[in-house]
Amino acid sequence: MLDTCYDLSNNKTVLIPKIRFYFQGNVKVPIYPTGILFGHSVSQVCLAFAGNSNASDVGIFGNHQQKTLEVAYDVTGGKLGFGIGGCS
Q: Any idea which UniProt keywords this protein has (predicted)?
């Protein structure tokens, strides 16, 4: 499922770009580096994002990105809230 992978074993340092998700209402949710890369070793590290096969498909904000967030669900109001500092 994760198709963009890297072998980082020959690198002394790795710079991970800052990534944010933008939601309606000018909500910006930063993703910590632990939610950007997924891997078991430096020889197999993948971007923790998977594309949809069709642009009209529903996108999923995955659990790997949510690990460092507190997520609040307002079911009645039809809203989500994000707070920094969830489980890491």
A: Hydrolase, Protease
| Residues forming a β-bridge with 83 | 70
- The two three-digit tokens of residue 51, written as one number: 């594309």
d(CA 24, CA 65): 18
- Residue numbers of the domain that contains 41: 5-52+62-84
The number of angstroms, rounded, from the C-alpha of 61 to the middle of its chain's C-alpha atoms is 7
Host H or E run for residue 63: helix 63-66
Entry pTM: 0.69
In the predicted structure, residue 51 carries a pLDDT above the cut 70: yes
Q: What is the DSSP string of 11-35?
A: -S--PPPPEEEEETTTEEEEE-GGG
Percent of the chain with pLDDT over 70: 97
